[in-house]
Amino acid sequence: MNSQMLNNQSILITGGTGSFGKRFIKTVLESDQPKKLIVYSRDEFKQFEMQQEFPQVPDGIMRYFLGDVRDLPRLKASLEGVDIVIHPAALK
To answer: pTM score > 0.70 for this model?
Structure first.
C-alpha cells in the first residue's frame, strides 16, 4: 500500500495472528500512523503472543478481538467504526 495511505485509519485484520497478518501489522506500524489496528482471530493464545511481540505500540492503537469469521454477528460487531478491512483469514 502507498505510504501514509493508512494514516489515521481504523484497520481490521481478520486472521491477524497468522503469518500475513503479523507481517502486515509490522509493515503498517513501520510506515504509517493508523488510528487503530484491530487484530481479529479465533486463537486467544496467539493474540497473547502477539501482545508480547508488539509491546512498544502506544496504548489504544492495537486492539484484539476474539472471534471466528464464520460467526457473522461477532464479525459485524468487530466492524463497527472500521475504515479498512484486510481479510487474510484462512480456514484450514
So the answer is: yes
